[in-house]
Structures are given as structure tokens and as C-alpha cells.
Amino acid sequence: MRFFRNSSVPEKAGIISIHLFNLLHAQSLGRVFLSTFILKAIKSIHTDN
Fold this sequence. Notes:
The chain has one domain. 92% of the residues lie in helices and 0% in strands. The chain contains 2 helices and no strands. It has helices spanning 2-6, 9-48. The N and C termini lie far apart (55 Å).
């Protein structure tokens, strides 16, 4: 995090916002993946029975 101390305030804000956006994006992708995985599991259980 050496570059973080030398950067200006707008740069810091931009870096923080990018990190937050990446975190939120990863979480939403994870939710989509989980929901599709759960739906596939439910469908496979129903077809087995």
C-alpha cells in the first residue's frame, strides 16, 4: 500500500470506490452462482425421484 500514501485525495477516493465496486460485484456474482447452483440441485433431486 505504498502508492496509497503518495496519492492525492481524489485518487484515494477513486481507489476506494473501485475496491467497493469490485467487492459488491463479486458478491452479486456469488449470489447468482449460488442461486443457479441451488436451482440445478433442486431440479436434479426432483428428476431423481
